[in-house]
Design brief:
Uridine Diphospho-n-acetylenolpyruvylglucosamine Reductase, domain 3; five-stranded antiparallel sheet; alpha+beta; six-stranded mixed sheet; Rossmann fold
Length: about 425
């Protein structure tokens, strides 16, 4: 049966045209009624040659039958079909792993100028919201499956599965029911076949539509929160990100939380972190106390920002220019020689040493076990000096010291050794410039 000139449901046609606009469409075809109807509508609604389909073969028991249905459908509609391998990674939660493999394969196959169309429906939306409610999701999770994200479009997200299946039947399309959708080992299938029918029978016949409508309303609130949170800058510095403390501690909690989630995505390969991590970052912003995050990152109060990133390690020792610029461990050190003692530059980002005492063979490096500094009344461990200055133990190995041979001349920005302290003559001033 040819469908080139078939008349499709007008509301479905408008939904597809509105979603695709001037682009071409790659329709994710699964072999079932939902995606079959979507492909038929797209073929009828869009320009000739603007639609192709892709089927992801997961190597699961039902994959061969679903592929056969997809191939037959595409032959009927005159649509090019690409069959992709979607190898499912090992691990728990087969549903999630198959979904990730499917999207990965489809997006990799997408051509320039194409949008990826999926046949998610209102039923899928309602099921997703119900599952996320039980997981304690916030506004972003309860906003549900977005109709549009990056190159992905879901034109039939406002239509029920029944509506899609009726359209597929009316058009005489080839499709099959995926037997995996009946397997109640999977959470979504239990929600679909047990929980949702119970809600509709015992609580509200319109529970499905109500959940989907709630998702649309929450999505509007979520978008507003996202816009406000985006006004708090997240500054990327290599593997680390920095959030200014001022706007973070004065923003309402939902906005601050969203900004932190955005920062955590940068250091967690897209993962927005756990609630405990978000609370830890907020605590650093308000208290200044360094916190370890469960993702093995560290949150530190630094130069008016909360810096989030991997546990710092020290670079190899480097010669410190006695006049000029030295870069070490991500920071810049500007060294100058001044003719007298600059008494107004003590501590903080400045380190002042007697030029004659330290000479020109200076090395900047990380603190090491066994390092001691001369206090004028003996020596004390550098680690103790750092502890007293409020430097957390997790940061001390990457905190800089200035050494002359085996002798510690200074803990940068904290303390200068008694033997290297500025005298009445020329002084060496080291200024630590911290980005941003």
């Amino acid at each position: 049966m040819a469908h080139a000139n078939v008349v499709v449901d007008e509301s479905l046609r408008r939904a597809v045209v509105g979603a695709v606009g001037p682009f071409k469409a790659l329709v994710a075809l699964g072999g079932g009624a939902d995606s079959a109807a979507l492909l038929a509508v797209a073929t009828a609604a869009l320009d000739p040659g603007a639609v192709r389909a892709a089927f992801v073969h997961h190597g699961l028991p039902s994959s061969a039958a679903l592929e056969a249905a997809a191939m037959a459908l595409c032959e009927e509609l005159g649509v090019d079909l690409t069959v992709l391998e979607g190898e499912v990674d090992e691990g728990p939660d087969l549903e999630a792993r198959a979904r990730e493999a499917r999207y990965r394969s489809l997006l990799d196959n997408r051509r320039e100028g194409e949008l990826l169309l999926t046949a998610h429906t209102e039923d899928d939306q309602a099921e997703t919201i119900l599952m996320r409610l039980t997981q304690g999701a916030g506004a972003t999770g309860l906003a549900g499956i977005p109709a549009s994200r990056d190159a992905i479009r879901r034109p039939v997200i406002l239509f029920s599965k029944d509506a899609l299946e009726q359209e597929a039947m009316r058009l005489g399309l080839t499709y099959i029911a995926d037997p995996a959708n009946e397997d109640q080992r999977f959470t979504r299938n239990r929600v679909r076949h047990v929980v949702m029918p119970t809600l509709e029978a015992e609580i509200a016949a319109t529970a499905r539509e109500g959940l989907a409508r709630s998702a649309r309303l929450i999505a509007q609130d979520d978008a507003l929160i996202a816009d406000l949170a985006a006004q708090i800058p997240v500054i990327t510095r290599g593997q680390r990100v920095l959030i200014p403390i001022g706007p973070l501690v004065t923003a309402p909690a939902p906005i601050a939380t969203r900004a932190i989630r955005a920062a955590l995505r940068h250091v967690n390969d897209g993962y927005p972190g756990t609630s405990a991590e978000v609370e830890a970052v907020l605590d650093v912003a308000s208290s200044g106390v360094t916190r370890s995050l469960t993702s093995s990152n560290l949150a530190v109060s630094e130069a008016g920002h909360v810096a989030i990133g991997p546990l710092p390690t020290a670079e190899a020792p480097r010669t410190l220019a006695t006049s000029g610029v030295t870069k070490w461990n991500g920071n810049t050190y500007v060294t100058t020689i001044v003719p007298g003692p600059p008494t107004h530059l003590r501590g903080g980002r400045f380190t002042v040493m007697d030029a004659a005492a330290v000479g020109e063979q200076l090395v900047i490096r990380g603190a090491e076990d066994g390092d001691r500094i001369d206090t004028g009344e003996g020596t004390t461990p550098v680690a103790e000096v750092m502890r007293a200055a409020g430097i957390p133990a997790t940061l001390r190995a990457a905190s800089p010291v200035i050494a002359v041979d085996a002798n510690i001349a200074a803990v940068v920005g904290v303390r200068t050794a008694a033997w290297a302290a500025q005298g009445s003559g020329a002084s060496i001033v080291v200024e630590r410039k911290v980005s941003p």
